[in-house]
Amino acid sequence: MIGIDITSIDRIKRMYEKFGIKAYEKFLNSKEIELVKKPETAAGFWAAKEAASKALGTGIGASCSFHDIKISKSELGAPLLKYRKKVRKAFGIKNSHLSITHDSGFAIAVVVNVLK
Questions:
Q1: Which of 15, 95, 98, 115 is the most buried (most CB within 10 A)?
Q2: pLDDT means over runs of 10, the chain (116 residues)
Q3: Which H helix or E strand runs over 4?
């Protein structure tokens, strides 16, 4: 299953300027917030979580919330994605792959889920 999303970096930046850390807490956990050093990263994480939910065929909602998806970084800095156990089990996900890029004011993410 594949999901993709594009997010405006400026929209995430304005959201943070208006609401501060509460804006990030809406879609990121504390470890993810620690990884955010600039708006591009936050926008990339937003796009990644939206893409991950689309790869399930649901979008963000009751079946999969922003906080059911966790993003981290590998030792080399590559983005990693993991769903909560209840989501992995419900959708039969063996593992997931994530790619994030940003350019010209946009962040784009692609997620591929490998099913059992």
A1: 98
A2: 97 98 98 97 98 97 96 97 97 97 97 96
A3: strand 2-8
Q: Which of 54, 82, 86, 116 is catalytic?
A: 54
Q: Which residues lie below 8 Å from residue 76, measured CB to CB, with a gap of 6+?
A: none
Q: Is 54 one of the annotated active-site residues of the chain?
A: yes
Cβ atoms 107, 50 nearer than 8 A = no
Inter-residue contact 55 to 3 (CB < 8 Å): yes
Q: For residue 40, give the DSSP letter.
A: H
- What is the per-residue pLDDT across 14-24, written as a single tens digit (0 to 9) for each? 999 999 999 99
Q: Pick the catalytic residue: 49, 86, 89, 102?
A: 102
What is the structure's pLDDT at 5? 98
pTM: 0.96
Strand stretches in 57-116, DSSP E: 69-73, 79-83, 93-103, 106-115
In one-letter notation, the amino acid at residue 42 is: A
φ/ψ (deg, to 5) at 15: -60, -45
Instruction: Look at the block and give the residue holding tokens 């997620």.
Output: 111
